[in-house]
Amino acid sequence: MAYTIHSAAVIGAGVMGAAIAAHLANVGIPSLLLDIVPENAKDRNSIARTGLEKTLKSRPASFYSKRGAQLVTIGNIEDDLEKLAQVDWIIEAVVERPDIKQQLYNKIEKVLQPHTIISSNTSGLPAHLLIEGRSEQFRQHFLITHFFNPVRYMRLLELVPTVDTDPALLQFMRIFGTEKLGKGIVICKDTPNFIANRLGVYVSLNTIQHALNEGYSVNEVDTILGTSMGRPKSAVFRTADLSGLDTLMHVANNLYKNAPDDEQRETFRIPPIVQQIIDKGWLGEKSGQGFYKRVKGPDGASAILELNLQTLEYEPQTKQRFASLGAARRLDTPAQKIKAVLQGDDRASHLARETTAAALTYAANRAQEIAESVVDIDNALRWGFNFELGNFELWDVLLQEPALLAQIFPEQELPELVRRVQEKGQGTFYITGNGQKQFFDFHTDTYQPVPTTENVISLSTFKAGPITQGQGVIKDNGSASLIDLGDGIACLEFHTKMNSIDEGIIEMMRYAVEDGAKQFRALVINNEAPDFSAGANLFLVLMGARQGAWDMLEGAISGLQQAHQLLKYSSLPVVVAPRGRALGGGCEIILHAHHTRALAESYIGLVEVGVGLIPAGGGSKEYLLRMGAGVESQKDGKGNGPFTPARRAFETIAVATVSTSAVEAQELRFLRKTDAITVNPETLLRDAKADAIKLAEAKAAGTWQPAQPQQLLLPGTGARLVLEQQIEGMLLTGKVSEHDAVVGRHLAHVLTGGDCSPITPVSEQYVLDLERAAFLSLCGMEKTQERIQYTLETGKTLRN
């Protein structure tokens, strides 16, 4: 049958259930959020109501925007059971007890419709156990959909079918999960705790046991096994705190009970000292303390203490320094960093080698039991635990370094699957053949193409291809590249550090618009780095200011302004496709483009005040227009007079507001309502190219025209004085510093139009000139230079 999901119900309003309902709302799917009726309660929906309220307050935020909560309807499973007949998908997220789940399924089955999909969010209970005694229809439409916490941010979604699950349903959920929910989908076999938790919890408990046996401290372990080993900074103990020590215990106990033949079964026994911590109620972040505890000192400053695993007392963290970690930090790729640590001869290297050997051996021994391919295992660890390399990708690093492999496995026989790769394969689990990445298929001992999302395109693939095939790099100047994506579409890619905007990027923007119009139908601006752009190159700004190179600085700012104006008025349709952070100059590129296709997790804002500056690449001007300062907007009443747009722009820019999602960026008007949002990073470039093709076709049909120059109505001196009074009030109450006030006055001067008349329109160039003058004036101030230097050194803002 054909499956569709236009509405859903989530049963169980705990942390996971409520967060699943929130993410459904994020992608536009209305849902019922149901839970039990508490005894003697006046509010029969109080549990679901509390779950939704907690989710609205959660940090990090579960909703893209709090307005999304309007799509969640609360209720209870007694009064609202019949409503389940009206939804397309029922997600069960109740307590991890088979008997309770079975009782719930009895009720669901009474109202179930033939088309309804049923799934459980269990983190480890066997799927075949859950469907015992259910009807054929129920079994065919049932599978496990295991989301990871926090649901909005964790990409992994494990799908676990049973032998009775309709294959068409599994295929539908794979596509739906990828395209609509934005998840990375992994198909798991019906084994205890599936893939990610099976391997991840083994790694955690094995590491904790090493720490206890060999006297490593909590912070020492997390420092060693963090970013230098290709893992998140939270590493082991901090990750346990974030997910909850009770969750770790639950998964471990489930594995110990349900995996009796696992040769590493004893590893899943919770160490007595950890059980004591759990018994004390020290469950991690949710209880305020676990392996770490945040406290406030006498001066009000916050500090994080670590738990001494011998005494169970909290102590100040000690700075950990190891030569191998220092060597790793100087390297670029995850593989290089990991090798540097593993090859070292210090205490960090010793722990890294021991835990890596255990993790890789366990993964190789379990692979064929728990997964259909090594690709699924690697994806599960990368998407579920934010590892930079999966276990079999790391195996390949070692298999290509025989000396290192022998150092990690000095006398131990390699796992059978690894020996098969050496004897029957080409020596590694992954190879590149015929321009495709392939993996060793343990079912056939042959190499097969790594599965990809349908029609996904990647800049790395285009850059690798020969230009003679009509695709590839057209031009590269070191800071940016222009790449032919085929179909008459080009892509401008940045590749400076943090994609900060320098002269090379400005040069390539000009080339892409001016020369690109002769070769292409439309332009996409996109890169596959974690962040779109951190803005202007602050180091060059600081050096220019300290050297008094004012003509150079003014020329650079003017060049950036004119490059952005070229984008705005280009006859070549321009689509910007940001992901991650698009700050300062990165935001200004978005503001000047014809259309934006943003990743849902895009954090966009004009943040220049944080370093003592104002937006000067046209950002102040364009944001005024977005707020309704254009003459045409004033004519049709949308601007509400010249002061309102200036005030609104000031209120956003003066506090360096950054959207927490692409949806919120639309609410803040960094994005237009007509701009589009993609939830899966893998499909962002594909979707942006499709948008560019549509604009190109509209241009060819005469239904798309380049932008026309705009004039602005700005309120002038009187409005500036009003904003300055607000600044003085904040200064008097200590809400801003003296230099914050100086920056605020410059910003108010620009946004109100300087000495202009509130009834006489001004040109865009007039506002650009105001931006540039304010920027240069602030650059010459010592406190701004101090702020820039501090940010460059620490990545943080200085309130001097």
From TrEMBL:
A biological-process GO annotation: fatty acid beta-oxidation
InterPro entries hit by this protein: 3-OHacyl-CoA_DH_NAD-bd (IPR006176), 3HC_DH_C (IPR006108), 6-PGluconate_DH-like_C_sf (IPR008927), ClpP/crotonase-like_dom_sf (IPR029045), Enoyl-CoA_hydra/iso (IPR001753), NAD(P)-bd_dom_sf (IPR036291)
Sequence ranges assigned to domain 3-hydroxyacyl-CoA dehydrogenase C-terminal in this UniProt record: 194-293
Gene Ontology molecular-function annotations: (3S)-3-hydroxyacyl-CoA dehydrogenase (NAD+) activity; NAD+ binding
Domain 3-hydroxyacyl-CoA dehydrogenase NAD binding: 8-191
Keywords: Fatty acid metabolism, Lipid degradation, Lipid metabolism, NAD, Oxidoreductase
Catalytic activity of the protein: a (3S)-3-hydroxyacyl-CoA + NAD(+) = a 3-oxoacyl-CoA + NADH + H(+)
Pathway(s) per entry: Lipid metabolism; fatty acid beta-oxidation
Keyword Oxidoreductase (UniProt): yes
Annotated CDD domains: crotonase-like
SUPFAM superfamilies per UniProt: 6-phosphogluconate dehydrogenase C-terminal domain-like, ClpP/crotonase, NAD(P)-binding Rossmann-fold domains
A UniProt-annotated Pfam family: 3HCDH_N
Gene3D superfamilies in alphabetical order: 1.10.1040.50, 2-enoyl-CoA Hydratase, Chain A, domain 1 (3.90.226.10), NAD(P)-binding Rossmann-like Domain (3.40.50.720)
Family: Belongs to the 3-hydroxyacyl-CoA dehydrogenase family.
PANTHER family recorded: 3-HYDROXYACYL-COA DEHYDROGENASE FAMILY PROTEIN, 3-HYDROXYACYL-COA DEHYDROGENASE-RELATED
Name by which UniProt lists this protein: Enoyl-CoA hydratase
Native source organism of the sequence: Dictyobacter arantiisoli
